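Customer ticket, subject: "Can you confirm the structure for Glyoxalase?"

Message body: Hello, I'm evaluating your service for our small team and ran a test protein. I'd like someone to confirm that this is what the system normally returns, since I don't have a reference to compare against.
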Amino acid sequence: MNDAMHDGNKIPPVTGILTPHLVCNDASAAIAFYQKAFGAVEQVRMPAQDGSGKLMHAMIRIGDASLMLADEFPEWGSVGPLTLKGTPVTLHLNVPDVDSAFQRALDAGATTKMPVTDMFWGDRYGVLTDPFGHDWSMATHLRDVTVEEAIEASKQQMCGEAAVAQ
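Agent reply: Thanks for trying us out. I re-ran your input and got the following:
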């Protein structure tokens, strides 16, 4: 850990050094979804003071990680992936059983972006999109692979895919 970034007790233990902060078109519904899909535990809920019913800040925990959420406030330039029509960000979850965890998220309302499959880097891995437009990858580690082995396996996979495409 970079000592310059972690200066004594100035980093709150509840969030750690890096905490994702998601903007959703309905943060309250997102919290309910994350509870059902990922077993999230709500820690903080702060409603906006404008009477809109929106959340200006919320925090949940998924496993040992904190995640902050807020509703969209377009007037402040704060919009989520549905408004943006996509996201360049994927949140990653390591789980003991990716197949059941992935299915739990699908049952809660997520959609499959990439089905769960065994990957060349040693994980069983899949990607889904939650109802709020955020992408989540999920994996269970199956075996250790060196960087060299992963590079070689990726080359073989690409060559195989190119041969199939021809």
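A couple of notes from the result: The longest helix spans residues 147-165. Strands lie at 21-24, 41-47, 55-62, 65-71, 90-94, 111-118, 123-129, 135-141. Feel free to reply with more questions.
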